[in-house]
Amino acid sequence: MSFSSDVKKELCQQYSTARHCCIAEFAALFMLAGQVKKFQNGTVYVKIHTENLTVAQKSYILLRKTFHAKIEVMVCRRNLQAGTSYSVLVLRKHDVINILKAVKILDEQKNQLSSLSSINYLLVQNTCCKRVFLRGVFMVSGSVSDPKKAYHLEMAILSKKLALQICEIISFFMIDAKIIERKKYYVVYIKEGSQIVDFLNVIGAHNALMNFENVRIVKELRNSVNRQVNCETANIDKTVSAAKKQIEDIKYIQCNKGFDKLTDGLREIALLRLEYPEYSLQELGKLLSKPIGKSGVNHRLRKLSDIAKQMRENAGS
Q: Do the beta carbons of residue 63 and residue 99 sit within 8 Å?
């Protein structure tokens, strides 16, 4: 089972006690997976069609709990490749009218207020209703990557207006969501790991949130350790490379001029560098008869390199 499936399974078990929240959550399911259809005789009915069992289950329970509607369920399995699809049907006329009024598609006079391509803001006036609406949207159209692989959460929406409204609702919770067009969809997405955690908290997926956070903490700790190791390795490589060049210069001076004409300080540091090629500048400084700091050691070794450079130039000319 994928991480997305785990999240949706958890969300399917979350139920609001307030009727206005139940309506807001059902409105999300209905806008993204529902249809208002007519039989040949003109009778209107409501249908929610999905291949996601959790969406079918949640739709069924919300319809029974909120509207006390009479419901029929159809399960269709065309072939092994196509998988199973579910249709949740409300056929009774007064149930259909009650539902369409509740989700603000019809007004009290049964005139059309809006369509399924946008949400009436009256449905999400309260913060709690905004949360459950986003929960419903994610259940129908959302997916989130396994945090072990990547940080990416998205919801694919057919209506541009609805996608913009969803972004606006998400921004209410101080979460930065963006929209990108992909084929026929407007994809609302979140890329930042901490923002995905915040979104999971908003929609009530608390177990998934903890699992996501655990993985994220381990990954960030591992990345931090790797960065530190890489930094230390780079410093070691730099130190070894510098020491190698210093030893080459010192040996050149030793073979071609000797140490007799060097000052006591330069002679002492030259001999120590040859004896302890793996030591850092700070460690070399402590071994001197009169210990000096890292910058003092570096200054003396630079002088030796300048002497070797001048000798090479003179030899070349």
A: yes
Confidence label for 65 from pLDDT (cuts 50, 70 and 90) = very high
176 and 243 within one domain: no
For residue 66, give the CATH number of its domain. Answer: 3.10.28.10
Query: Could you report the per-residue pLDDT of 245-293, keeping only the tens digit for each?
Result: 888 888 888 888 888 888 888 888 888 888 888 888 888 888 888 889 8
Quote the CA–CA distance of 119 and 135 in Å, as a whole number: 15
Tokens of 26: 């059902």
Based on the domain organization, do 153 and 245 belong to the same domain? no
Range of the domain at 74: 3-204
For residue 225, tell me if it sits in a domain: no
* 52: β partners: none
- Judge contact between 188 and 170, C-beta under 8 A: yes
**pTM over the 0.90 mark:** no
Pairing type for strands 142-144 and 178-182 reads unpaired
Length of the chain, in residues: 317
Q: What is the DSSP string of 150-203?
A: ---EEEEES-HHHHHHHHHHHHHTT---EEEEETTEEEEEE--HHHHHHHHHHH
In a domain, 55, yes or no: yes
Tell me how far CA of residue 59 lies from CA of 13, 21, 190, in angstroms: 12, 14, 26
Query: Please, is 265 exposed, middle or buried when counting C-beta atoms within 10 Å of its C-beta (0-12, 13-18, 19+)?
Result: middle
